[in-house]
Amino acid sequence: MALQPDDLLDARGLPCPLPLLKAKQALSRLAPGQLLEVMATDAGSWRDFETFVAQSVHEMPAREERGDVYHYWIRKGGESAP
């Protein structure tokens, strides 16, 4: 089953740490339980997103590399909507 994001952030071409900072801003606009897809080309984002999710209430149900683009799916943590 493919993940259906509620929002898409295109952070391709942005250097570290901008993909993560933009993702944090995008997550702040989502409701708990909603899914954000992030596309980034910065190789350091792989580690950055892994660390961010490990230290936050958010979850990363999937991530993958397609060519030179990294895709991250981050589910906003907190209380889920009923």
Automatic annotation (TrEMBL):
Q: Does the keyword Transferase apply?
A: yes
Task: Note whether Transferase occurs among the keywords.
Answer: yes
**Domain called UPF0033: residue spans:** 9-33
Under Gene3D superfamilies, the record lists: TusA-like domain
The molecular function terms in GO held by this entry are: transferase activity
Report any Pfam family annotated for this entry: TusA
- What InterPro entries is this protein classified in? TusA-like (IPR001455), TusA-like_sf (IPR036868)
Q: Keywords, A to Z?
A: Transferase
Q: Which CDD domains match?
A: SirA_YedF_YeeD
Family label:
Belongs to the sulfur carrier protein TusA family.
Protein's recorded name: TusA-related sulfurtransferase
Cite the source lineage. Bacteria, Pseudomonadati, Pseudomonadota, Gammaproteobacteria, Oceanospirillales
